[in-house]
Amino acid sequence: MNGTMHCASTATEIILKRGPAGLGFNIVGGVDQQHILNDSGIYVAKIKENGAAALDGRLQEGDKILEINGHKLEGLSHGAAVDLFRTAGEDVQLLVLKMPINGPSRPRPDAEPSSYTIGMWGLAAVAVAVAFVFVRYQYHLRRRF
């Protein structure tokens, strides 16, 4: 292992047998689509239910995939990494950097809204309410005179 790895993370070798639906997970990242700021690594985005990865149980969402069948993924575009996964054969050897469950480098799941998003929805709701009250108030003023 080199000195660039996080001390709380451990590299694990995982061998998956490709199933009818492939390896059973989606990836994100690459030099052209960074998933984490200043990190062009390839990460597990989603584990598909009943897929090869889910049935094995060792690969988790947020894990960083360092190698596939001995090919390093560092410096690859997202498309190049996808091509490596598609042509990897039936038995696929992965070298995976297991991320700490609540570590600072773990990406936020896509389904979890950020506080900014929640705040913007709240602001939009207030704006709609104010506009509604304003229109109703204008209507009542016009009816009286």
UniProtKB/TrEMBL annotation:
GO terms for cellular component: basolateral plasma membrane; cell junction; mitochondrial outer membrane. This is Synaptojanin-2-binding protein. GO terms for biological process: cell-cell adhesion; establishment or maintenance of epithelial cell apical/basal polarity; receptor clustering; receptor localization to synapse. The lineage of its organism: Eukaryota, Metazoa, Chordata, Craniata, Vertebrata. Keywords: Membrane, Mitochondrion, Mitochondrion outer membrane, Transmembrane, Transmembrane helix. Gene3D superfamilies: 2.30.42.10. GO terms for molecular function: protein kinase binding. Pfam families: PDZ. The chain crosses the membrane at residues 116-135. It comes from the Eukaryota. Binds (via the PDZ domain) to isoform 2A of SYNJ2 (via the unique motif in the C-terminus). Interacts (via C-terminus) with RALBP1. Interacts (via PDZ domain) with ACVR2A (via C-terminus) and ACVR2B (via C-terminus). Forms a ternary complex with ACVR2A and RALBP1. Interacts with MAPK12. Interacts with DLL1; enhances DLL1 protein stability, and promotes notch signaling in endothelial cells. Residues 13-100 form the PDZ domain. The keyword Transmembrane applies. Signal peptide: none annotated. It is found in: Mitochondrion outer membrane.
